[in-house]
Amino acid sequence: MREYKGARPRPPSLTYGAMQIRPYTVDWKYGVHTERLDQSGNFPSPFGVSGRAPSQITLSDSLAPEYLQISIFDGPLAGIDPLSAPDRTFICTPTDHSVCTTSAENNTVMVRLPSDALPGSGNVVLSVSAEYLAEPELHAERFVNTVSWVLALDITQEAQMKECD
């Protein structure tokens, strides 16, 4: 069992490349503060990625999540059935770094996916879900706080070719 290092008072923010991504869902409690957000049914705006898509996700937190799942769906956002099985799934835990590596630097947690996790071009949707331990005083009600993000990427091959020239 891991040593308890404290609960996070607020959900972390997520950065992909240089872009900060708004949470898609939040179910968080710390002390008497409760934060809930459910954007289900609201599609995030797709954004373009010129060149090779970054394989690194950054969480603004010095604590690594207890559980982090990254699900990748190939295709445009409008064509994805959210109840379908993802094309690729990566699970990271503080004790298992076999799929993605995490490192805490400058009060951030960097998650690096395998280099072949994202396609060289095309549309792809990433679903990122994280679980953090709740305060021990809340364990009668909950053990974890959760937050998730959804990213719709349009990766252009032309831009990738231009960067290589």
Description:
This protein is mainly β and 165 residues long. It has one domain (14-164). 5% of the residues lie in helices and 45% in strands. It has one helix spanning 157-164; strands at 14-16, 19-21, 25-30, 33-38, 47-50, 56-59, 67-74, 88-92, 101-105, 108-112, 122-133, 144-156. Strands 3, 4, 5, 7, 8, 11 and 12 form a 7-stranded mixed β-sheet that branches. Strand 3 and strand 4 form a beta hairpin. The chain is globular and about 50 Å long. The termini are far apart.
In total, the number of domains comes to 1
- Which residues form runs of ≥5 with pLDDT under 50? 158-165
Largest sheet: 7 strands, mixed
Helix content: under 10%
Give the helix/strand layout.
Layout: E1 14-16, E2 19-21, E3 25-30, E4 33-38, E5 47-50, E6 56-59, E7 67-74, E8 88-92, E9 101-105, E10 108-112, E11 122-133, E12 144-156, H1 157-164
